[in-house]
């Protein structure tokens, strides 16, 4: 595909995922812009005008970017597709920053939304008085297992086979997919954003593995394989308990969520008798080391923006979420932060007091007086 045929895309965020996606798109001929709020973090990329990328099969390439900037207007003006690749803790700030510059017809995809990301993003745009007719969508998780390996280098370890996505409202999902198919045919439609939010596997894997391996992380600075060495039989049983709670919350909302084992089979063709076995059977997890520090997005992102909103929905609809609450409390103690208070609550998502029927109508049609 040549650049004159290609869709122009802006990547917001130059972390592990953002750099990998920007380089991948640029290598494949797509006109790509990269935004990061701190220019010093992307200065080397700007000087070199691109990113070196190592692919999962060992191939290497150089993705030449059309624009590398910390100026949001420069980053998104006239670009039809905006891929937000930042921790969920930054979604609110990104929404505030893009709001004055958005134009009718633009599509914003949260990669991923974690739980309730599209709700919160849309709420912020409305609070700022943004009148642009834009579409917000969220992916269930991130497309790659990837890492940043230097100031202008990235490595993609594995791509998921398929990746569910939904727009808010669901009536716009097909239009979003029509655009995304040009760059990533792995994106597929799911019914609505309740499915992307409640099939959030980061909520199950990331906080528990980090918190329950805290001693090992601090002692070794993360020098072990996170998903292989870090998932012992006991920790695997904790993950299974958390997963049951998530699936039960979804059931209470009329949704048949995937189990973690079903997700691993679909996304990575990884199978096992237990969740631990399925994780160990995933070659995409091999070589991924643990976080070097406990000050990591697996806690400060996934606890308040994945576990808290699922637990909130559990309390709202009568589901026992004692496992999730235990991790929320443990993380709050470890970081000295009230993640329950700081997290993505029903109020911040515009769902406070709504029934299952009202929430379902909202995600399907966008109609709910006073919701978001």
Mind explaining what this structure looks like?
By secondary structure, the chain is α/β, with parallel strands linked by helices. The protein folds into two domains: 9-198, Rossmann fold (3-Layer(aba) Sandwich); 202-349, Orthogonal Bundle (N-(1-d-carboxylethyl)-l-norvaline Dehydrogenase, domain 2). 44% of the residues lie in helices and 15% in strands. It has 18 helices and twelve strands. The chain has helices at 16-27, 39-48, 72-76, 91-98, 117-127, 173-180, 193-198, 202-212, 214-220, 233-252, 260-268, 275-280, 297-300, 302-316, 322-335, 339-342, 346-349, 356-365; strands spanning 9-12, 32-35, 50-54, 60-64, 67-69, 81-84, 107-110, 135-139, 144-150, 153-159, 163-168, 187-189. The strands form two sheets. It has an eight-stranded mixed β-sheet, sandwiched between helices. The protein has a four-stranded mixed β-sheet with strand order 4-3-10-9. Helix 8 (202-212) packs antiparallel against helix 10 and helix 14 (302-316) runs antiparallel to helix 15 (322-335). The longest helix has 20 residues, at 233-252. The protein starts with 8 loop residues before the first strand and ends in a 7-residue tail after the last helix.
């Amino acid at each position: 595909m040549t650049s004159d045929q290609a869709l122009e895309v802006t990547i917001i965020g130059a972390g592990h995922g953002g750099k990998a996606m920007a380089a991948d798109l640029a290598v494949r001929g797509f006109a790509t812009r990269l935004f990061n709020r701190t220019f010093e973090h992307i200065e080397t990329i700007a000087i070199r005008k691109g990113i070196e990328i190592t692919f999962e099969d060992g191939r290497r390439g150089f993705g030449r970017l059309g624009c590398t900037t910390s100026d949001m207007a420069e980053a998104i003006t006239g670009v039809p597709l905006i891929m937000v690749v930042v921790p969920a803790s930054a979604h609110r700030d990104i929404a505030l920053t893009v709001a004055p510059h958005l134009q009718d017809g633009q599509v914003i995809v949260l990669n991923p939304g974690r739980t309730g990301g599209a709700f919160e993003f849309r709420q912020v745009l409305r609070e700022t008085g943004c009148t642009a007719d834009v579409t917000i969508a969220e992916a269930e998780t991130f497309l790659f297992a990837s890492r940043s390996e230097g100031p202008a280098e990235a490595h993609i370890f594995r791509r998921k086979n398929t990746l569910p996505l939904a727009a808010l409202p669901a009536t716009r999902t097909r239009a979003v997919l029509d655009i995304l198919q040009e760059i990533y045919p792995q994106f597929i439609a799911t019914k609505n954003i309740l499915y992307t939010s409640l099939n959030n596997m980061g909520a199950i894997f990331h906080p528990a593995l980090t918190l329950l391996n805290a001693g090992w992380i601090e002692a070794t600075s993360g020098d072990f394989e996170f998903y292989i060495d870090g998932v012992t039989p006991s920790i695997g049983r904790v993950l299974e308990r958390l997963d049951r709670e998530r699936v039960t919350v979804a059931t209470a909302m009329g949704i048949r969520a995937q189990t973690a084992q079903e997700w691993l089979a679909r996304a990575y063709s990884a199978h096992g008798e237990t969740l631990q076995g399925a994780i160990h059977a995933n070659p995409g997890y091999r070589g991924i080391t643990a976080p070097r520090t406990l000050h990591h997005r697996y806690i400060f992102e996934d606890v308040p923006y994945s576990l808290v909103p699922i637990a909130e929905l559990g309390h709202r609809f009568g589901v026992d979420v004692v496992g999730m609450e235990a991790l929320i409390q443990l993380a709050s103690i470890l970081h000295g932060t009230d993640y329950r208070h700081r997290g993505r609550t029903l109020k911040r998502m515009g769902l406070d007091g709504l029934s299952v029927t009202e929430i379902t109508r909202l995600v399907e049609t966008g109609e709910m007086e006073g919701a978001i």
